[in-house]
Amino acid sequence: MKNSKISVLIIDDNEPFRQFFAKKVQAHPQLQIVGEAGDGAEAVQQAQQLRPDLILLDIGLPALNGIQAARQIRKVCPRSKILFVSENRASDIVEEALTTGAGGYVVKSEAGSQLLPAIEAVLHGEQFVSTGLKDRNAIDNADRALRGKVVARSGLHDVERHELTVCADDAVLVDGLAHSIELTLESGNAMVVMVTESHRAKLLRKLRTDGVDVESAVERNLLILVNVADLLSTVTDCTATDQNRSALIPDVIVEAVRMANEGHRHVAVG
Questions:
Q1: Residue ranges of the domains in the chain?
Q2: Does domain 6-135 match CATH 3.40.50.2300?
Q3: What is the pLDDT of residues 19-38, one digit of tens each?
């Protein structure tokens, strides 16, 4: 890094994460925080006003998501380097984020050990991607859609992949799910989400804050929320044999797959 202070703008709608990033940044003598913001629109405004050397940018933001904000920031403040810091591990999200011209992508759960090395790399003009993402070949598999998804193509048993992501807290989980839902709906596909009742309420609140027409999506069977408790009660009534495995699949998912096949769409299950 150069000897003069390097200005840093932190963008994240989660206050605890902003505090965590600020603490990491302040631990480095050459880094100086010049501002913080909690939504994408404010991020663009502050970037234009402050013209920071580096922007730490979340993806699941209200008003504008991080990728949209990055594209606008590149126009109004092209010299600012961007480092995405998000818990979203979906390969297509990582790929799209990097196509904005961002210098790197750090997974939040790995930020404790990787944030400062990522900042060093990005400021030196190098690209940095979290080790966990590279190990899973996330970039090479950018045609795969959502984190934790199962894609239904021609039938219920045409499973593309499963992934397990451990989230630091409820906010990270809801943030990741909300962004996956938003991308799925934007692409014209459907999504089935299995959540607890408490997570369901938080998820709906987050989606509405981000401007998603939840009621329309639900009415059109593009967004289906399945209560985990109801699903588990169904599973306990069956044994997983080839003969009765289809009985484990809720009717709403079967209907979503049927409609998706008719419309040549995909169904993501998270």
A1: 6-135, 170-269
A2: yes
A3: 999 999 999 999 999 999 99
